[in-house]
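In this supplementary section we document a worked example of the pipeline. Step one takes a protein sequence of length 287 as its only input; no multiple sequence alignment statistics are reported here. Step two produces a three-dimensional model, which step three serialises into structure tokens for compact storage. The input and output of this example are shown verbatim.
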Amino acid sequence: MHFLTAAANTTETSDINVEVSNFITFIVQKSVDIGFKLLAAIAVFVIGRMLIKFIMKRIRKSRFAKKSDTTVVTIINNFISITLYIVLAISIIAIMGVPMASIVAVIASCGLAIGLALQGALSNIAGGIMILFFRPFRIGDFIQVAGETGTVTDIGIFYTVLTTPDNKVITIPNGKIMSDSITDYSHNDTRRVDFVFSVAYGTEIERVRRILLDEADKHELVLEDPAPFCRFSKHNDSSLDFTLRVWTNSTDYWQVYFDILQSVNDKFVSEGIEIPFKQMDVHIQNS
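The serialised model returned by step three reads:
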């Protein structure tokens, strides 16, 4: 009886030893496997990072980067860099043994969540890409957009920055810009300056036309081609209105505008031409 009990204890001890040995072997194998995968992942990370830096350096020194606008090059570089790092991260995760189906599912879920949370930001990114692709304006242009007017000082991926004539800085989301009409005053080299001058009824029309054209011709910043244009344009309530149009370089627009306003006013005063103001005649009849 004692012999049978001792034999049973010996068998149980042997089974436990086998299980422990198998467990240790399993742990060692898994550790070695994970260790090799970890070393491979580290090697891929180091080599991949060096390769990405080399690629980005070559792009920055390429002919395209040297000839293209700085803002465009910066955004393209950032986009390529982010894409390459995402590919590197996915490769490392795959090396660690994570199934690709799980990676795709996680990326899709994250993309959906981020897209819902950042709808406004994504519309601004899309607007920034469209601005850089279609080039409706450039840095340094004087534009009017989204109810604001100023000189473009920066075009980013999310926002465009304007500086107003009184030196205020306005930041406008790119999505709002691309959904609005854009007026670029600096796109062309020349601009037309339009005036409307009013004189009193009874003033000789040809005399006024001659004065306006003479003042336009005398200004050194007014272009000869196209030639200045002046016509009697309207019978107003209290005045005769004349339209004067002259062409000048875009950079000289306001100089010409203010100079001609002042010179015409001075000429009207010296010539005795009355500049009217709104008035109403009331006739009273006794019944």
